[in-house]
Design goal:
Low-confidence stretches: none
Number of strands: 11
Distance between the termini: 59 Å
Order of helices and strands: HHHEEHEHEHEEEHEHEEEH
Strand content: 15-25%
Structural class: alpha/beta
């Protein structure tokens, strides 16, 4: 039994006339009659009562088969539509790795626009360090990541989508908060709140390079894993921090952000993925990311 048998049968069942059904199907009447006969032989039942040579009525078996034929074709159409949507990246799942830095401006914008255009795609989010994302991509635990170069794995594909500068975060009551710009040298005796290097080696090294330019070592008195915790400690007067400018979007009372007077390194955010694992969903996501970042930059 082939799909054409079902379509031919439905046409005859709806028209109850072979000539009219043949005209509707754009075929001649004799081949249509032969196809219906083949179908009846295969099923082992009569589907039609022949009232005249061309006019027919459905048998009880024919009525049952008509309803089932409708359902079969409807299921087929649904399967085709779902397959086509999956092929265009409009349904399915995408697993996204990200560092804590991108949740303050970049990631929410991208997720919002992607969700608006691809409602049927499930988003799975995992907060991971840059090195953890590289491993997760190799292990196929994520499909795409938002990380900070340099990358250790040069086999990964990546595209820089955002750049930002470093700023000093300090208590709004701190004497240095009265200045428009803050020099790194003025932080010589200030307690510095930092994160462990393993969490973001690239960012950590950029921050340390500022002190190396001034030929002195920072006075690191406190470490915290989360950026929001670091800013919370700054708010409590526990010290100062050097953080990417996007942290300003973390609304925290009692915290002031000031640009650095010295030449500060630029912090890059890149979208990273495995080129050999490029799917339609991932292609759509990368396109949305590029569009969003052109607006943000």
């Amino acid at each position: 039994m082939e799909l054409r048998h079902l379509r031919y049968f439905i046409a005859v069942a709806e028209e109850l006339h072979f000539s009219k059904a043949a005209e509707r199907l754009h075929i001649s009447q004799p081949p249509l009659s032969q196809q219906i006969q083949q179908l009846e032989v295969e099923l082992g039942v009569k589907l039609f009562h022949r009232k005249t040579k061309r006019q027919v009525q459905l048998t009880e078996a024919g009525k049952v088969f008509l309803q089932e034929a409708y359902q079969l074709l409807a299921q087929l159409e649904t399967a085709v539509a779902l397959t086509q949507r999956a092929g265009r990246g409009k349904t399915g799942q995408i697993r996204i790795g990200f560092t804590s830095l991108v949740i303050y401006d970049l990631l929410p914008l991208i997720l919002r626009q992607f969700r608006e255009q691809f409602l049927e795609v499930e988003l799975v989010l995992l907060e991971l360090t840059t090195s953890q994302q590289e491993q997760a991509l190799r292990d196929s635990r994520i499909d795409v990541g938002f990380a900070h170069p340099p990358l250790e794995d040069d086999t990964l594909s990546y595209k820089c989508i955002h750049r930002e500068t470093l700023m000093v975060a300090l208590s709004s009551t701190h004497s240095l908060a009265q200045q428009e710009y803050i020099s790194v040298r003025s932080l010589l005796n200030e307690p510095l709140i930092m994160f462990p290097r393993y969490l973001a080696p690239g960012l950590y090294d950029h921050i340390m390079s500022l002190f190396q330019q001034g030929n002195f070592s920072p006075n690191i008195t406190q470490e915290a894993i989360q950026m929001q915790t670091i800013i919370g400690l700054v708010s409590a007067g526990m010290g100062v921090a050097i953080a990417p400018s996007s942290l300003q979007n973390l609304q925290r009372s009692g915290v002031a952000y000031r640009p650095i007077l010295d030449k500060a390194p630029v912090i890059e955010t890149a979208v990273i993925w495995q080129q050999n694992s490029l799917t339609p969903i991932l292609q759509n996501f990368l396109q949305i990311s590029a569009n969003c970042c052109s607006q943000l930059n």
